[in-house]
Amino acid sequence: MTTPLTGPQSYPAPPPFPAFPPPLPPVPPRRRRRGLVAGGVALAVLVAGGGAGAWWWTRDGDGSPLAGRPRVADDAAGLSYAVPKGWEHDSKHKLINAFTTAIGRKKQDDHHTAAVLAGRSGAIPQDRLRMWAERAARSNAEFFYPDRPVAPEESRPTSVDGHPAHTVALRVDAEEGGPARLRMTLLRVDDTRTAFLLGIDQPAGGPVQEEVDQVLESAEVTGGGKATEERPEAGGRSGSGAPSQALPAYGTDRRRL
Hints:
Helices cover 15% and strands 31% of the residues. By secondary structure, it is α+β, with helices and mostly antiparallel strands. The protein has one domain (30-234): Mog1/PsbP, alpha/beta/alpha sandwich (Protein Transport Mog1p, Chain A), CATH 3.40.1000. It has a 7-stranded antiparallel β-sheet with strand order 5-7-8-12-11-10-9, with helices on both faces. Strands 2-3-4-13 form a 4-stranded antiparallel β-sheet. A two-stranded antiparallel ribbon has the order 1-6.
């Protein structure tokens, strides 16, 4: 049994990957969770629930791989991101509160699956983005792939639409379906809120991984950052818009569930 984190506390420079992750979102029993992951990673976060707004629009001419593709505008998280060809949303389902919007790739070749999920949290100082990105990535790896070995692949500062951000990539030794890759980009929307994009693909590598990276790299800050009423005509799939439990509020008691 791991020792839980306690807080509030001071924040020295963290090790590359902290030993103890922050709290996880509410999850089904462990056996059930593994079954959901094996059947497709996007299904693990779908439950009935309320909605924050998400709408779809297109954008051309920026020269990126996803130029001209539809985009999700996530009002709750305060960002937008592109939707690759072959990816989709499902208006029949809603998300758990840890996430605000999501898109997924069908098993077009009966092999690869992938999903990108967005969420929001409270303000995080720029010099703590790395620590929280690494912790949150570890926690989400444990959420989707319980008790599986995880290895760091990447941890680097970046920017999203001119806003400071940090990107972390992990490789997970999944039980079924080959190794999985999880990539999270955590960004400061403004001084009061933070947003993130979480991409997961399995098995890792190849064009599907490239698509996940392209979605994360297509992100733009819209400045919304607040939960809004759902817009049924858009058909977007969304969560509650509440601050994400996938990324705990900065400076709060972070006891592991």
